[in-house]
Specification:
Helix content: 55-70%
Order of helices and strands: HHHHHHHH
Shape: rod-shaped
Number of strands: 0
Distance between the termini: 49 Å
Oligomer: single chain
Structural class: mainly alpha
Largest sheet: none
Radius of gyration: 27 Å
Number of helices: 8
Length: 210
């Protein structure tokens, strides 16, 4: 789905996640490996040029080598975790784009629901938002804009709080439950996810316990 360039508004509202802490850990591990190799090279140089009496250089080298192996194993494991997280994030982002229209609509319904004080106001506001979302000019705005930009614009237009991140977060939670997008941690097997189904917007009926 092609989006138009949203100039300053697009730049002011970003959905890009911060780099995971694991990437910083990888840099630390890489520096640690380099430090361990420096110790190994210094030990080798001392053994060849100015050996100290009684020094067990083979043991020293073996200790450093074991430390390097363990660090590399940890670095490899962490690298795979980072790669898996990136793939999961890319998959989630692609799903959000595929269901862009639904995501924006759910965000606006979430805003209407959250600002309402009682059931009567909930019904009124939700009905108003649903009706407005069906208008051609609103559909065109949603189609042409990124989700944060569209939600912010509609909130301002309809007098709702401009809590873009919160409304989109609630929309994503609903879409996860409906099976439209994978979970944020990416740990669940996609085959275990419920199949997407039309969102009627109706609340499930309470079970009859009478």
């Amino acid at each position: 789905m092609v989006r138009s360039m949203d100039t300053a508004q697009t730049d002011s509202i970003s959905e890009a996640p911060a780099a995971p802490a694991a990437e910083g850990d990888l840099r630390v591990l890489a520096e640690l490996v380099e430090l361990q190799m420096s110790i190994a090279r210094a030990t080798q140089q001392e053994a060849l040029q100015v050996p100290q009496p009684g020094a067990d250089y083979c043991q020293r080298i073996a200790t450093v080598a074991r430390s390097v192996r363990l660090t590399l194993l940890l670095k490899d494991k962490l690298s795979r975790q980072v790669d898996e997280r990136r793939k999961a994030a890319a998959k989630r982002e692609a799903a959000q784009e595929d269901f862009h229209d639904l995501r924006v609509k759910l965000a606006m319904l979430a805003a209407a629901y959250e600002v309402s004080k009682d059931n009567e106001e909930i019904q009124r506001r939700v009905a108003e938002v649903r009706e407005r979302l069906e208008r051609p000019e609103v559909a065109e705005l949603i189609e042409a804009s990124r989700a944060p930009v569209a939600v912010a614009a509609l909130c301002r237009r309809w007098g709702l709080p401009v809590r873009v991140e919160r409304w989109l977060e609630m929309a994503d939670e609903a879409m996860e439950q409906l099976g439209f997008i994978p979970p944020q941690d990416g740990e669940d097997d996609p085959e275990d996810q419920p199949k997407p189904r039309p969102a009627s917007g109706r609340r499930p009926k309470k079970p009859d316990t009478g």
